[in-house]
Amino acid sequence: MHWIADVTMSNTKPGLVYAVSGNGIFMTEDITVSKPEWKVASHGIEETVAVFQGMISIPDGPLISSLGDVGGYVHTDINEYPSKTISQSISFAYAPQKTSTIVRSINKQETVDGNTVKYNVALLSEDNGETWEELPRLPINISGAKVSVSADGDIILWHAHHNDHGNVLYWTENKGQSWHKTSAVPANSTPVPDGVEPLKFYMYNPANGMIYRSDDGAKTFDEVSFVGAKGGSSVLKFVRGKSGHIWINNAGKIRYSEDEGQTFTTCTNYSAAAFSLGKEAPDKDHPTLFIWGKASQELPEAMYRSTDKGLTWERANDDSHQWGHLANAGTIEADQNVYGRVFKSTAGMGIPWMGIETIPEQPDSIPVQPDSIPVQPDSIPVQPDSIPEQSTNIKQNIISLDKGFSKQLDIENIRSMTIYNMHGQVIKRMNANEISLNSAYDFGLKKGVYLISITTLNKKSTFQLHKK
After folding, report:
1. pTM beyond cutoff 0.85
2. What is the DSSP annotation of 329-369?
3. SS3 content of the chain, % helix, strand, coil (to 5)
4. What domains can you pick out in the chain, each with its CATH number?
5. Could you please report the per-residue DSSP string of 14-63?
6. Closest Cα to residue 336, out of 82, 102, 148?
7. Residue 256 is inside which H or E element, if any?
8. What is the predicted pLDDT for the residue at 268?
9. Nearest partner of 457 among 423, 422, 414, 424, judged by Cα
10. Which of 130, 245, 372, 463 is least enclosed by beta carbons within 10 angstroms?
11. Is 25 exposed, middle or buried (0-12, 13-18, 19+ CB in 10 A)?
């Protein structure tokens, strides 16, 4: 236990006391002894709240969380209970070009001459959160600081704001062996790295609506442009692998720049309390955009998804899965590894996620027509390199194993074939010899809908495959 919200004493059993804290309900059977033994009494009851930054999804890595009272976790598999616990984090960041390099900041305190001194330190992991190294302490005692890291992982930034010190920014190029102070910090915001260039960082100042850029590793910052409005969140987001691409929630409007912050394009959303960039759709070369807000004025506040840079929107949840307010962390976090998945902070319900459902099976008695397939290419959750670059329109290319598979395709000229389920998982790979040996062409598939990627002598094509 740490803080106590309520204490209840038994009216029938002297000495029995219950106490509730943020990490559960505890009991002691005899409060009268000098050292009461406390036990957890709330087995099977959970109340977890994402706090501070809340969570971060690492490309080719885990989801890392920060939770009130219980610390945080490194979630290598969101379907399993996490085996690795970490201390509660104020912020997280990863290097865009070296994603296994992750930094986070934590608050600490110590007693000096009878006085409590609170401060903040940075921790570094270079193995996707498996192990963490606490970097040498900074020369200033401020709690609540946030961290960032350059595209190549070589420069670590530490930013804080204090009434006595103003905006403070330190940088290190040797894992904290020496910290250097940036002389002029133009905003109370944490710089974000460029998605490619190691020396470039960006900042936004909500007070004046200006974007600032550093070309020398955060040693200095220059004013670049006016975003479009004052206010809003100070958080910027980069696009991994895209130099000069930054996104911002500017007073409820999502805006993005593709020229190092010189000009911005405004998305069509009506409002946004939070936004995030996630895994790109199979046929796209830009991230999937999520907002918690309203895609248009008449729609409810909810989770929305866009695969065309905020031009059009699709509801990413339903009214039965709103999961309440964004609460303490006030954030959403798009999955960097699974297209269409997004996580949300809540007020006590943990970290729910929302994704794209599998296409339902077609009834045997109803023939399938091209315009009856309720799936567009943008909404198929397949990994990007699972659909060849020269893929054709999936919706218009439908084959069925009960209509003579070999007659529908140019089997003789096929060089290779890969079959995927609608989650993007590979079911079977075959070369030309293996295909010709399988006279039935049913490949042992169960009844359902699949994607089939075919490479012939002249082209690559993608089809929906229906097994009845």
Report:
1. no
2. TT-EEE-SSSTT-EEE--SSB---EE-PPPPPPPPTTS---
3. 5, 40, 55
4. 6-40 (no CATH), 50-354 (2.130.10.10), 370-467 (2.60.40)
5. TT-EEEEETTEEEEES-TTSSSPPPEE--TT---B-EEEEEEEEPTTS-E
6. 102
7. strand 253-257
8. 96
9. 414
10. 372
11. middle
- Annotate 188-217 with b (16+ C-beta within 10 A) or e (fewer): bbbbbbbbbbbbbbbbbbbeebbbbbbeeb
Q: Which residues pair with 108 in a beta bridge?
A: 119
Tokens of 95: 């290097």
DSSP string, 191-219: -EE-SS-TT-EEEEETTTTEEEEESSSSS
Residue identified by tokens 């999937």 is 288
Alpha carbon distance 251, 273 (integer Å): 9
Q: Residue 109 to residues 117, 142, 143, 145, 147: CA-CA distances in angstroms?
A: 5, 10, 9, 14, 18
Say how far apart CA 45 and CA 49 lie, in whole Å. Answer: 13
Distances (CA, A) of 379 to 45, 52, 311, 373, 422: 36, 31, 15, 12, 10
Say if CB 206 and CB 231 are below 8 A apart.
yes
User: What is the distance between the alpha carbons of residues 454 and 415, in angstroms, rounded to a whole number?
Assistant: 8
Q: Tokens 């006590």 — which residue?
A: 348
The tens-digit pLDDT sequence of the chain (468 residues) is 667 888 999 999 999 999 988 777 899 999 999 999 999 888 766 678 999 999 999 999 999 999 998 899 999 999 998 888 999 999 999 999 999 999 999 999 999 999 999 999 999 999 999 999 999 999 899 999 999 999 999 999 999 988 888 899 999 999 999 999 998 999 899 999 999 999 999 999 999 999 999 999 999 999 999 998 888 888 999 999 999 999 999 989 999 999 999 999 999 999 999 999 999 999 899 999 999 999 999 999 999 999 999 999 999 999 999 999 899 999 999 999 999 999 999 988 889 999 986 444 444 433 333 443 344 444 334 344 433 333 333 334 444 444 444 444 555 667 778 887 765 667 777 776 666 544 445 567 777 777 777 777 666 677 777 777
Of 216, 219, 157, 163, nearest to 189 by C-alpha is: 157
Tokens of 41: 């009494």
Structure tokens at 429: 């790979």
Give the SS3 label for residue 249. Answer: strand
Contacting residues for 138 by C-beta, under 8 A, at least 6 apart: 119, 120, 121, 122, 158, 170, 176, 179
* DSSP-based three-state secondary structure for 378: helix
How many CA atoms are closer than 13 Å to the CA of 428, on its beta-carbon side? 16
